[in-house]
Amino acid sequence: MDITKPSKFMMALLKLESKIKTKRYSSFCGKLGLKGNEKVLEFGCGWGGNTAELVKRLPGGSLLCIDLSKAWIDFTKKRLAGNYPNADFISGDIRKIASQAETMDAIVIHHVLHDIPPAERLSTMQALKRWLKPEGKVFIQEPSKAGHGMSLESIRQIMSQSGLEMVEKQEAARFTFSAYSRLA
Questions:
Q1: Model's pTM, two decimal places?
Q2: Which of 146, 184, 179, 183 is nearest to 33 (CA)?
Q3: Which of 15, 16, 30, 122 would suit a FRET pair with 163, their CA atoms being 20 to 30 Å apart?
């Protein structure tokens, strides 16, 4: 299955799933501690489950959604129905998109990193880090079960190699949440 080219059935199924999981997205976004005036990059917005929650929490800020899939970007734009002028969208490989260097207060990665081929994870994180302000944070939540996900240690290693250090962590039965800032 190519996650960058979802079928209509997959999109409909995920739209239904995201309605069911609204509380989960709200809970995740609540962990970020956003004040509402930040510039946030959502990496891998997919069908927009977190996008809708994030943009509501940024009335004086902005949200930039980047996804490899044009189909997902189009789906998420339609889902938000133009109600949020503070949201922008870019489709493409983060490693090839011209970076707006050090402009983002936060980068949000929710259940995306584990889908990136292992050989591309470090270069992807290095590309994302270029967008981050010196005092900014990267927030990441990934599934952690064997066979589908990543361990907290695997995530920490990639972040460390990218020049980021862990400043917060939470581990649960099925996922890990962690926050990172630039190494001093």
A1: 0.88
A2: 179
A3: 30
Which structure tokens are listed for 112? Answer: 């995306």
Structure tokens at 132: 């981050």
Closest by CA position to 90, among listed 108, 103, 77:
77
The partner residues of 19 in beta bridges, in order of sequence, read: none
Give pairs for 88-91: CB < 8 Å, separation 24+.
Answer: 88/62, 88/63, 88/64, 89/45, 89/64, 89/65, 90/64, 90/65, 90/66, 91/66, 91/67
- Give the pLDDT confidence of 85-116 residue by residue, as tens digits: 999 999 999 999 998 899 999 999 999 999 99
β 132-145/104-110 pair status: parallel
Mean pLDDT of 153-167: 95
- Answer for the pair 139, 149: CB distance below 8 angstroms, yes or no: no
Whether 46 and 67 have beta carbons less than 8 Å apart is answered as yes
Helix-then-strand count for the chain, H and E? 6, 8
